[in-house]
Amino acid sequence: MRQHCGVSRHHCPLLLRALALSVSAMLGTVIAFILISGAEALMTGQGLGLFGAVWNPAAGKFGILPMIQATLLLAFSSLGLGWCLSLGCCCVLNGLAPRWAARWLRGLLTLMTAVPTVVYGFAAVFLLVPPIRDALGGTGFCWLTAGLLLALQGVPAMTFIMDGAVRSIAAESRLTATALGMTTAQHLSRVVLPLASRPLLSAAILGLGRAVGDALLPTMLAGNAIRFAHTPLDSMRTLTAHISLVLSSDIGGGEHLSLLLAGALLLTFCAVFSLLSRRMARRVRS
Amino acid sequence: MRGVREFFLAALGWFALAVISLGLICLVGFLFVRGLPVIDLQLLFGSTPAWDAILALRPVWDGIWPAVAGTLSLLAVTMALVLVPGIACGVYLACFATPRERDWIGECVDVLAGIPSIVMGLFGLELIILLRRTFLPRGTTCLLLAATCLAILVLPVLVTAVRSAIEALPRSLTLTADALGLSRNQTVRRLLIPAAGPGILGGVILVMGRAMEDTAVIMLTGAVANAGLPAGLTSKFEALPFRIYYTAAQYTGAEELKRGFGTAVLLLLLSWVLILSAKILQRQLARRWAA
Lengths: 286, 291
What we know:
The structure holds two protein chains of two kinds.
Chain A: H1 14-44, E1 55-56, E2 61-62, H2 65-96, H3 99-113, H4 117-127, H5 129-136, H6 143-179, H7 184-195, H8 197-213, H9 216-221, H10 239-245, H11 254-285
Antiparallel strand pairs in A: 1-2
Helix pairs in contact in A: 1-11, 2-3, 2-6, 2-8, 3-6, 6-7, 6-8, 8-11, 10-11
Chain B: H1 4-35, H2 41-45, H3 50-54, H4 65-95, H5 99-113, H6 117-133, H7 143-167, H8 171-179, H9 184-195, H10 197-213, H11 216-220, H12 240-250, H13 254-288
């Protein structure tokens, strides 16, 4: 990391410094606000079984455990698929396939980064849900549908992170590998990928954060029933979908408290993931 | 000689290529086949004459013009809120911050960049509830609130883009400026910022794309299905992505569904135009300093 203008903060215009510091103070406040609301919800809602397994508003039970399970199931399953796809894409970009294929894939991935999530969801409701309903039964709005789309949506971001690391490592060792008579595939699989294990893991963590945090695909495609999902054809409601669905008018009631707790949980998950991924990227660089 | 590992890797690569190509072509092709024929003036304005609708002389009942206008005004307010602090913070981080500040602010920006947008929507909702309890008893979710939350959501993206655009400039620029006796201030203002201009502009466009497509924030902070044209900063509004979401969930007839497909294709094309222009600007910057 390079610093352009030395360290002399005395030369920095006061206004610029004030703006920068107030921006970071504001960001810190937002994070604190969400966390404190969540903690407060946990304190006030002690009788409501917020961390329990039962969601039954009539009985005064507002357990969000099924949603936590749904969030984790959906995130990890879609990450598994998406990460493998990204690894394949990354190898194609780095010489495993002919150049035309790499160029075509790079163009596709760039276009994919810009497809709005809501457009993915909209298309899937009419393109993917009916065949799944007809072929496998159920309503079609299930773990499987949401997982497939979530995996597809996460591929470009992960691929570009992997590609950056793999490209620089491959460039360092390509001459040697060629001199030893290795093919590109051998070079990639025996030398580059083992060396790139940390960036590959860091991409996975980043993808996990994205998958946990996405709200629209689960809301539009996963069916939103509050219960533990057992098979891929079960309907599920994730934490994000819970927040986007409940427009409770009873402020301070059980539903509202469960929203706050869900928000704080999501924030914690995602903050931990992005800090981890940052640490890992930094260790690679040094 | 080919080992098992090489074979699997090649298989994985071609499989991924096939899945991505097939997936995207099916998705986009399906949308275009259903949506492209629908895109015309009637999609935007319905049966209202175009100029009357644009000048807000007559309301539009069966077109998506209110959603377009809502998205545009949301974008305008968001960008007005985010541009100055975002660019200032990026420049500060790249040029003036001490190592400790860089660590702290950088960490904060990273954490915030990972926040799910729905959580930011929840933040907006809680904020307005808090304000109602204290000194704004009549406040509701509105355009200004949505724009504020969107601005906070995209702020880290802008900061990172500005910072990396400046840090990507060659070191020799600063050295030359020092040798010529320019002060730090002069170097930054006259040399680094203009030189990184295309990159910064690219970041701004990228952020516009993010703000335009985000649905999760606005559905909690003031977007509704039938608001008409946005009446002001404190009124509810319609937006393109929310319109698409709403149509998928509760369309009532073939006509409405057709409009939904048109809206989806329109949003997709707009996003592509934005990202392509951002890419072109950033490539221009890279090429200029490659020599």
